[in-house]
Protein 1
Amino acid sequence: MDELRRNHYLKMMGLTVWQRRGQLLPAEQQRPVDRVPESHASVNQRVADQQRLAEKEVLSTEDTTMPRHDWQSLQQQVRQCQACTLRAGCIQTVFGVGNPQADLLVIGEAPGADEDKQGEPFVGRAGQLLNAMLLAMGFKREAVFVANIIKCRPPDNRDPKPEEASCCEPYLLQQIEFIQPKLILAVGRIAAQNLLKSDIAVGKLRGRIHLFGARKIPLVVTYHPAYLLRSPEQKRKAWQDLQLALSVLGNKS
């Protein structure tokens, strides 16, 4: 990713981009990056369409590590799950979206009201900020996989209970096993503490690389976009977390 575009996405995150005096870009590179005049709903639809196409192309290959029927079977198991009481109180399950062979797996906490309606994690203002964070890293949303600790919306958007997270954990572990990401980005307290089996605060978990599971997948913790919207002064720390994540991925941007 060129520096001009990265700076644009950092500004979308709400971060001030500083330049040393005398290092201004040439005039022809100083024009603003045009935003695509596309509504959030149409973006969601486009991403969903691209996901379906990507799954058809990726999961139909002979040498794939994710048999198509297994991935679809897991989706069906999630839709039919009655392991806890949450399914009875939500519109639909939120399995996750994106590239099922992504290098980067983003895991949040639980669906909210908008996610429950659309069947997709991280929509609304928090989703827009997450998209900007990913773009600042050099990833389009559809290039990564985005999921949650639990697949059903808790009532009144409350935090998921430990027993609810425990019921959903086998599905998440199967997703991780299928995807085999090079890095997990744990977004927010609920996700970080459940994945790391810890009660340590996010502020103390971030800033270093953890290892997840038997495969010892690198895991980086950062703040939840909803928290960053309430506490924009923490966005610079979040950008530091994303840079740490990029160092693990080999700065593919």
Note: The chain is about 45% helix and 10% strand.
Protein 2
Amino acid sequence: MRKLVLFLHSSLDGIVEGPAGAMDIGFVAYDEALQTQAQQILSTVDTVIWGRGTYEMMYSYWPTVSENSTASDYERHHAKWIENVEKVVFSTTLDKVDWHNSQLVKENMAEEIQRLKTLEGRDMLILGSPRLAHELMKLGLIDEFKITVSPILVGRGLRLFENIENEQALTLVESKIFDSGALFLDYKKQ
């Protein structure tokens, strides 16, 4: 059975979006080592799970990268990957999704995630979308948490773990310390 994996960058105090909103993530100690870690994680999945906000943000940027002469090789590679990966968007407000290999799910989120888990293929990844992740955590549907932790206290913003209602035991699968002081933590649900 496929797993649903959450991958997010966080501050030490658990902030995934600073006080300025969705793209207030300049605090992330993103360097070549974290880029390599992200590429390794992305190589294990064939489906990306997003909420409306992340989908709209990604769709407004990544399809333009291949024509951007200042884009790095990494950005071009990522743009090609994201263009071709299956994208499942959960939204009650969108009427359609136009991006290649995208499908819209407007209702029955828990049932749809359970159905997707039974399909053949590689794991599914919540890439960003912390608000959607909050809902999926409440439903107990996330099987694995892959989190990078940057060595900074942000103070205000959207926290990674909000309103957890039920205890969920986790097992540490992997941890890494990067030269930047950032950590990578991989926990699976028991």
Note: The first strand starts at residue 4 and ends at 11.
Protein 3
Amino acid sequence: MATDYDKVYRDAKHALGAPTQQFVSFFEDYPKLAAKVLDVGCGQGRDALFIARLGHHVTAVDLSPSGIADLQAEADAEGLSIQAQVADICTYKPSQQYDVIVVDRVLHMLQKEQREAVLKTLCTATHPDSVILIADEPRNIAQFQAVFTQSAHTWVVLMQKRGFLFVQRGV
């Protein structure tokens, strides 16, 4: 049975815990200031809030109205640059290009074809030097690599280890 994340978020603040450590490490070393970041499947914003606190401009999308409400309330209270919106990542179409796209443990909830379609859409929201950071089930990483390999753009693997794939779009 699928998890009802809207209920999970209604029942507990910061239900999924701290930001993903591999994303924290990436952003601690990321040289660009005030980057445009897209957080796909953001939940209550554990990654989005951390990233915005570093001075980046975050667009955050999730299917859960409760998660988005929690995220936006915390962002507003802290004066953070976050635009949060309820959206289904399977039909979401980014309206701009991003420097970094974060996809934290959400793609495994989709069917294989949906995962591929979402990644292909996200690739269109990048420019040369953009980075896509993915945390997901280890069994899906090869599928994600194939999407980047088949892309019209060149992608360089920055980091790949169990359950993580960080890629950067080439020039």
Note: The longest helix spans residues 65-78.
Protein 4
Amino acid sequence: MSDKRQNNQLLLAFAEENRGEAPNGLSGGTESFTAKRGTESPAIGEQLMEEVCGRENCKRALARVKANKGSAGMDRMTVQELPELLKQHWPGIREQLLNGTYEPQPVKRVEIPKPDGGIRKLGIPTVLDRFIQQAVMQVLQGRWDRTFSEHSYGFRPGRSAHQAIAQAQKYIAEGYRWVVDLDLEKFFDRVNHDRLMARIAERVGDKRLLKLIRAFLTAGVMEDGLVNPVDEGTPQGGPLSPLLSNIVLDEFDRELERRGLRFARYADDSNIYVRSKRAGERVMESLKGFLATKLKLRVNEQKSAVARPWNRKFLGFSFTSNREPKRRIAPKAVDRFKERVRELTQRNKGVSIERMAEKLTRYLGGWLGYFGKCQTPSVLEGLDQWIRRRLRSVIWRQWRLGSTKFAKLRQRGVSKDLAAQTAGSAHGPWRIADSPGLHIALPNAYFDSLGIPRLTVRL
């Protein structure tokens, strides 16, 4: 079935309970539903669930879930199967949502390694629950986002990590050259449900929607074949969780603003900039108390510190200590980059350099999209040279025998004497990779021809 035909059938399914709906609104659909059910319509301002189930909102939610792809949940249904499910069962699902009887499935526990060590626990909802969460998130975000702090940058439309980093850079340039680097301990696992729901209830009067959000929070986690209950936390992995985290931490943002502090926050990663170490230490101790008593959250003592900004990292970046600070890639981020490149360029039997280049190119494209905004070109130049030396050493290993190496060098324009000297060298591949013979045989232009991007091109 074509995507266009499938989308048309889904629109019909979304609209089935909304036959009186105006083309670009929800009022007609609400009246149609109310008349059909014979029940009293919620008060004005409390019809958010009707908006969640509205045709346009659902259409956007489905498109987003399909675009995000992602793994199957505990029911093993894939994103590709979701449209057919909605086409067949959406009227019944919608009725459950509007009646307040929909029950989410437990999330599937998935553990992934963190870049700086440790394990991050994700909770993967079923694709149907992801769709419903996305629809709820869109409605709540439309009302909530404009009220969030201007210093909050994570998981918000039109905002990015790069903006948070630029704001931090501006504070440092203004003379706030000490940072209170706060890391919340297992934040997504420690969110207090009662406090979160109380915050949401301040602005949401639709009890059906409040009940649904609470149900998502307490749906449980399937781990090792068993479903375990959940009484705190908002599992990472669902579309609704990032918005809920911002709702929780908005209270923290307001406290920082009330104190007149300069800060930038991205999700649970907060940096506060002050003029002295002593001021930073006072702020750190005071905020620990606020977080513990007001938000029931703990600061990770090992990962938090009062320090110079150039000795810390923020969202993968750090800064130089110049009067006009420059953005630079944090050393740990450089280490992770090299580790990933090594994984992608392992000397695997049967893997051609062309195939290796394809995988490497995809990774470098994404990496450049983020870290290409650094302001220290010498670092990128060094990484460029390191990548090509790494590739030369891999190719040298693939050539194997001395006679083969000699022939390959000659084919690639290396003189007879230099080819013999290089092929007969007792040095290892890494040392040979930086030799004149390999630079002639495998110039940068060769790697350009494979499509491997140069990291310094943007600069």
Note: Confidence is low (pLDDT under 50) at residues 17-45.
